[in-house]
Design a protein that fits this description.
11% of the residues lie in helices and 29% in strands. The chain contains two helices and eleven strands, in the order αββββββββββαβ.
Length: 173
């Protein structure tokens, strides 16, 4: 207590720093799997999720728990655009700015198969009420095409979310 009184009286306050973490998530894998690896993560405000696009043509599109293979309303969601990578790996970053609710994502690619309906989904901070397995099962049972943008691999449009900010992509050799 005496230190607190001294610190307040002298204008010297202890500095507390919080370190953000970069969380790596694979999008697709070297064997052509339609996966996010890991499938879900726990993130704090300020953490950066680095999506590493490996082989194939994939995207990271925000959806909702109730409608896993449909983009969340544009303007309030995240959409990486398509990354067609072979053999380079591209990293696309998303900074977490709000953790008040889980965030749900899927790959919007539909060629040669619908990636979302094949189970290519991802979650940030799933809860005991909204678990990842239920989200993935709903995606696999959905009938939505999930395709609202060109899948040529040339687009990298990002819609900034009220819960996340995004940064550009980086080629990793």
């Amino acid at each position: 207590m005496q230190f607190l009184v001294f610190a307040l009286a002298s204008g010297v306050l202890p500095i507390v720093t919080v370190s953000a973490t970069t969380i790596s998530v694979g999008v697709g894998n070297s064997t052509g799997g339609l996966v996010f690896e890991p499938t879900n993560v726990t993130a704090a405000v300020g953490d950066v999720i680095g999506f590493l696009f490996t082989t194939g043509n994939h995207s990271v599109v925000q959806s909702t728990f109730a409608d896993p293979c449909t983009p969340k309303k544009l303007g309030t969601s995240v959409n990486s655009g398509y990354f067609n990578n072979s053999p380079e790996v591209t990293q696309w970053n998303m900074k977490v700015v709000d953790i008040s609710a889980p965030m749900w994502f899927y790959c919007q690619q539909t060629i040669p198969v619908n990636h979302c309906q094949a189970g290519m989904v991802f979650a940030v901070n799933p809860t005991s009420d909204q678990i990842f397995v239920a989200f993935q099962q709903a995606a696999m049972a959905s009938g939505s095409s999930g395709s609202a943008t060109d899948s040529s691999g040339s687009s990298s449009t990002t819609f900034i979310s009220n819960i996340a900010t995004t940064t550009g992509s980086t080629l990793i050799s």
